[in-house]
Amino acid sequence: MKNTRTNIMAATKSLIVEKGYRDMTTKDIARKAQVNEATVFRQFGTKKELLLTTLKEADWTPTVSKDIFDRFQWELAKDLSMIMEEYFEQVTPEIVRFSIGLRAQEIYQETLPYIQKIPTSFIQVIQDYLIKMEEKKIIEISDPKETAELIFSSMIGFAFLNAYASHEQYQKDKEVFVTHAVARFVNGLN
Question: Which pTM was predicted?
Fold first, then answer.
């Protein structure tokens, strides 16, 4: 039973990436999960309830590792690189497309809190890091929250370009992006 439930939620996630919520049907979900459509309804009720359960139960939401502060070296370039690398390890093109698939008008209010967890957690870590760096007198910064949002904006921008642009259109790889972005931020913050 648990395996069936897990398969249905995995199929839902996969179809949201492929089609988006609006174009995904319970027939599609059942077919992909290799179950009867009645099983989908019995397990979850409606398509919307299935999606919300998938968001609540499935381990899909990227978050910053709780031990990241223990791993910081308190060197701006190295630590910003580590934050960005952790973000890109988790925020794959599939996660970006999944997140976009959750923005259908009929479910947006219910899915928004799940979508916002990603930027909220990463911005908070960057902000807390910058505040700590200022307390250690390593950097001076006038607005840690705004700076954290700016750093995060570059990360999410790259993640979206990486997920949707063709290789000919946007050829920068993650390592090059992280190196260049960190160098520019460090230069601007020092």
Answer: 0.83
Contacts 24+ apart (CB under 8 A), 110-116: 110/48, 110/52, 111/51, 111/52, 111/55, 114/55, 114/61
For the segment 159-164, the average pLDDT, to the nearest whole number, is: 85
The token duo for 30 is 């059942």
Measured distance CA(84)–CA(159) in Å, rounded: 11
Tokens for 6? 């897990």
Nearest to 64 by CA among 128, 109, 16: 128
For the chain, what's the residue count?
A: 190
Q: Is 3 helix (H, G, I), strand (E, B) or coil?
A: helix
What is the CB neighbour count within 10 angstroms for residue 122? 24
pLDDT tens for each residue of 21-66: 999 999 999 999 999 999 999 999 999 999 999 888 866 677 787 7
Cα(54)–Cα(95) distance, rounded to whole angstroms?
14
Helices (H), 58-173: 68-71, 76-90, 93-101, 108-135, 144-164
Closest CA to 102 of 21, 9, 48: 21
Type of residue at 40: V
Tokens describing residue 70: 């223990």
pLDDT in tens, 84-119: 999 998 888 888 888 888 888 889 899 888 888 889
